[in-house]
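Hi U.,

Before I forget, here's the chain from the pilot set. I'm dumping it here mostly so it's searchable later in email.
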Amino acid sequence: MYSGLAASYDGMAWWRVLPAGEQLIRLGPKGAFDSHMTYLSVAPIVDDGGVMRVYYSGANGPHGSASNYTVRRTCLGMASARIDRLAGLWSTPQDRHTPVEITTRAINCTGPVLRVSADAASGFVQVGLHNGPPGLGLDSSFALAGNLVDEPVRFAHGADLSAFVGKSVQIKLRFASTVVYSFSFSHA
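Structure:
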């Protein structure tokens, strides 16, 4: 048994973020305390530095069977990742340097500042409104690079999304040689 990753908008309908069979926390090597099973804790802990820790139990024997094992050990483990780094979008492996563009479905804008988390150390990401007014589209946003965690998107002339708070918008992303993990809205 292994831990996967699923998401839901409403807590009722769920879908897999990782394909079936892909492990969120990989099983350990033969003989390791977590070589056969992992069970995640209910909620991760996020520290002030933006690192998320999840504690899990692991077992070195198969579920429901003690065959070939005199004692199945169960131990506590910890996995960590930077916040918003569990799943991401990246350009195709065949040509990571060619920019790709992705447009979201309509979502509610909840704040005037658009933010992005991405690993753009070898590339760039631009984020803007799809079919928005002049000054808020991709061509008006500054390209961002580096290891970005909740980075504010900057638009030419200091524009922001104040006029769209509480309204439906579509976000458009352009990126190359980058993994985009998330975007969000904030008030500051």
